[in-house]
Amino acid sequence: MNIKRSSGLLLHPTAIPNKLGIGDLGYDTYKFIDLLAQLKQSYWQILPLTIPEKGNSPYSPLSSFAGNPLLISPQILVEDNLLAPADLTSLIGYSDSIDYASLILERENLLRKAMANFSLQNQDFLDFSKNPWLDDYSLFISLYEKNNQQVWSQWPEEERNPSNSLKKQLKIKLASQIAYHKFVQYLFYKQWKSLKAYANSKGIQIIGDIPIYVSYNSADVWANKELFQLGSDYQAQFISGCPPDSFNEDGQIWENPLYDWSKNKESGYTWWIDRISYNLEICDVLRLDHFIGFTRYWSIPAKLYDAKAGEWKQGPGADFLHALQKAIPQLKLIAEDLGSLSPQVTQLKEQFNLPGMIVLHYALDDWEFANANLPHKSFIYTGTHDNNTSKGWWKDYAYNHDIIKSNFYKSLAQARENSDFIINEDSVAYDLIELAYASNCLVAIIPLQDMLNLDENYRMNRPGTAQGNWAIRIPQAYASTINQEKILGLISRYHR
């Protein structure tokens, strides 16, 4: 992966302000890309664009392939003559947070109107419908709706594990629903590809995300049961999580079903190759989430539901990455290697020449060590979607830790060649941005919340909490509140 010294912004599209209740792939997002270009950024890190299965999190999706219908721009549907301007009247009005429940119903009504004005014999649609993942997804989601959105393991036996002949019958029986879901995915794909092309034309690459695990209640598991550690009752035998550590004395349970890596290998890792190939079609670079799990993973017996009862199991390692590399010549991956790194993780990352990650919120505990040992090609962040905003981090954590404040001040003074300054709540976000830009990492990625100096109320996600996540909206006047002169000065000074 050929990368240059540069910078970018991190923001999920849903948070981009507009008057339609949720950020989407429409005109306001094109304006956001214009802002990226004005700020001389090279990357937009988007996080997953998938359909949340629960908790509004795209990291727990109903499919690893399908795009979220809520991201489809109604305004562009009007421009394409699939909706009338009057259809959008009830949508107009800015909201400070996302009301997912009402939006889902509202948008489905619009999308069904759009479908009534579209010919399913359109050649572009027919070509898109040949995507191999689309058949499984559209049948799964149609059955999911038929069964009142129950987890697939609670469906009638014949629908839990249908034979090929039954699948054909179900596709006939559910033809109109299946056609609707294929149409929705076509709209998402068409709008996203146009937006990505615009970003690329402005010199901006899109960084996507591949969560290592998938939801149990997903088309991925339902259609590929043999690739996961399931019992004869289709229930997960072992689930994901992590062992007890200094942050969590009981460990963590993530609940995702674990892969049967031997069966994945027997298949030639086909599902993984298809998944990453498709995501590289809609993104330029992919962050491989929880990279540590490809060397070893924590396996928790599902019946015990106790992270302490888990044990380490061997991951697929180099064999898996060799298969990806062979199948996908233009493989561009970032290894999300946060956490306790074993020598095996570092060795695997270096063997395949993958850039890793560093997060200043964590690294400043021992910045001298971290900075001295950083591979220069790493991607550095002030924080991620799972962190507090930098302003919130300073108030709630860093301000009470003298070692962090000392490391922060000394490293920034060294970068500035000047020690005559004070770090405080009002300056901390831009000070952290400067430290990221000054680092020897090739790429610095900044959450937009930090560039806007927003507080903890604009945090995207709080790991371990089920409610209130992924619902923030960035303030409407965000573009005018960025100190563009300062950012452009830092980019020039630190050669970003």
Task: Give me the secondary-structure topology.
Elements lengths: L5 E5 L16 H12 L4 E3 L28 H6 L20 H17 L6 H6 L3 H15 L10 H4 L3 H10 L1 H27 L3 E6 L8 H5 L14 E5 L9 E6 L3 H6 L3 H13 L2 E4 L7 E6 L9 E4 L2 H11 L5 E3 L7 H9 L5 E3 H4 L3 H6 L6 E3 L8 H7 L5 H15 L11 H11 L4 E5 H4 L26 H4 L2 H10 L3
Parallel strand pairs: 1-2, 1-12, 2-3, 3-6, 6-9, 10-11, 11-12
Antiparallel strand pairs: 4-5, 4-7, 7-8
Name a few traits of the molecule.
single chain, alpha/beta, four-stranded antiparallel beta sheet, globular, 496 residues, eight-stranded parallel beta sheet
Description:
There is one protein chain. By secondary structure, the protein is α/β, with parallel strands linked by helices. Helix content is 41%, strand content 11%. The protein is built from 21 helices and 12 strands. The strands form 2 sheets. The chain has an 8-stranded parallel beta sheet. A 4-stranded antiparallel beta sheet has the order 5-4-7-8, with no helix packed on it. Strand 1, helix 1 and strand 2 form a beta-alpha-beta unit. Helix 5 packs across helix 8 (175-201). The chain is globular, with a radius of gyration of 23 Å. The two termini are 18 Å apart. The model has no long low-confidence stretch (mean pLDDT 94).
